[in-house]
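Example 3.2
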Amino acid sequence: MMRALLLALIVALTAAPAAAQDYEQLMAAANAMRWQSVNPWKVNLAVGIGVAGTYQYSRDDQVVLLPLVDAEWRERFFFSTQRGVGYNWIRNDTTVGGPRVTFDWGRDRSDDDALGNTEDIEPAAELGFFWLRYAGAWRFNADIKYALGSHGGIHGALGLARGNKLADNASLFVGLETHYASKKYNFAYFEAGDHGFNDITPYLSLVRDLRNGGYVAVDGRFSIIIGPADTSNLTTSYGHSASILVGRRF
């Protein structure tokens, strides 16, 4: 298992710079299911492809590689190419939450012709806090992130979803999420001069369990752009993304 984890980590770090701005959302379906392991380590490995904007809320699309390496020790400390590096400070049957460090890959003006007159955004680590609440079939999520360098902006998300069993080995998640950003973040990414919520995003995630811990996860999202981002000449009125991953949980 450690060899597989090391190989997957190398692939993930090699592919990471090609990730889209909404990389975390593209990978979300792989971690939609709560699951237990008899071992101190819980490991989730997957690989897939996604289609998303060339930058956040862009008009053009790109295809990206999605390598997932997600390891958690004693349900406390975790390292993940989807969730970042963090600590489950709150951990019980209904709630998980705590600090984490993620990474914003920034943006180059060469990523898209529409960015020709904009400034490059330097990559930066982000310090944040996440919260997940489970109430029966319902799941509520919130997070906030602060860029430790680069633009120094703040952004986060609020969402809810309902999980439905389609069969013994298949589950469908129907959710709605919105994303907030500070004035600094919005100015850096969209040349917009105010803070606020930038989208309303309904989504569907389908997870099909296979033998021996294997699974297939499919995710599709459609964003209605609102608020400061909607006033920008860099954004479209509607965004979308889709992904499919094949993985295994250990």
